[in-house]
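hey so i finally got around to running the thing on that chain from the lab meeting. sorry it took forever, my laptop kept dying and i had to restart like 3 times. anyway pasting the input first so we r on the same page abt which one it is
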Amino acid sequence: MELHTAFFYGTLMAPQVLHRVIYGTTAPTAQQKSSLKIESAILEGYSRHKVRGCDYPAIIPSSTSSTSAQGIHSVRGTLVTGLSAQNVFRLDVFEGDEYNRQKVDVQVISDGAGDGSGGSGEIAVEAETYVWIDGAERLEEGEWDFETFVREKLGRWVGHKEYLEVDEAVRGLEDGVDPTGGRAMGMTEREVVRSAV
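ok and heres what got predicted. didnt touch it at all, straight out
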C-alpha cells in the first residue's frame, strides 16, 4: 500500500479534527494512531489567511512583492506521514472545491530548532497540501491563529457537519458517485469503498 505525506496548516493540525476526518472518529484505535507520524514543519513561500466568515484558514502563494520585512512569508504547520489513499480521499472531500491539493516542499523542524531559518535541525520533505483556489476576495488580510482556534472554536468542530459530508461521500461511492470531482487519486470506487469499511 502506497503511503502519503501531507502538510496541514489549519484545523487539521488539531488531532481530534484530523482523526475524525480520516478515521471517522475522534478516538482512533492505538493502531490507527501509531500508523501516523506527526511533526512540526514550515512551508516557505506561502501566507496563511483567515477565510471571511469561517473558522478555518487558507494558504496562497506569496508573490515577491508581498514578502515581509523579515523576508519570504512562511506558514508553520504539521507534517503527517503514513496517510493511506483512503485517508487522502476523505481529506479531499473535507477540503472541498475551495482548495486544490498540490505538491510542496516543507522543512521539518526537529527538536531544538524551529525558527524557520533553514539552519540545522531542519530537513526538506516533499508533501501535499491544500492551496486556496476560491478567490482572494474571500480572504482577510490577517493571519489565522491556531491557538485562538483551539481555545475558542475547536469545541464546535467536534461532530461538525463537515464530517458528515465526508462520511456521506464515502457511502455515496457505493452508488457510483465520486464527490471529489475525480480527485480520488485513481482509486476505483470499489477500492475506496472497500478501504473505508
